[in-house]
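Would you mind giving me a polypeptide sequence along with per-residue structure tokens?
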Amino acid sequence: MRLRFLYWLKREIGFSRKESRGFLLVVPVLTFLAFSPELFSLFSRQIDPATEKDLLEVADSLRLLGFEEVSSPFPVRVGLDTVNRSMQGLRKIPFSDADSITLQVVPGVGPTLAARIIKYEVSMGGFFSKDQLKDIYGVQPEVADRIWDYFEFDGVIRNRLAINDAAVEDLAKHPYISYGQAKVIIAYRNQHGNYEQADDLLKIRIFDPEWIQKIAPYLTF
């Protein structure tokens, strides 16, 4: 049977004897690869919560080292009650009360990422929008959305900048304000007097209105 098949390959396709034998070796490999996703799904198992947490922390560390996250080509079975079970025995607290320990309850948030989120939130003086989480390096959109499953968004701004009294260095400490922008704000104030409202910054034509809207919640006059 094998010899007949080799003869057919030579006669109909023009394969040499060496090419025909190579073809016979490749066919089983291609067949295995074609059905490997289905085979993988048959043998896949759910990961226990403790192991899943460890793996997520490792993944977070790898992202910090510059590795990129890609989707697996194989189907992965995840228990339908995974999220529900992870929230059992918990109650939502305001996000402004969260710290680098409590944030780690969120799947996908390890110690390093939790510390970075808190550091950024403190430097901002608080968040006025849920979407501000997505500005933080290393926070994937799905992780940012998942955080609000565990914490209440309260939109508390704890620290504001007194724009009419602040020095250049004070303004430049805020993540939304560069040193150059801070210098322009102070120079305009020195020349034209105190600001009365955020819209006064629109008089400085180099400033983008959208940027002014972003910093407005953090200013006092």
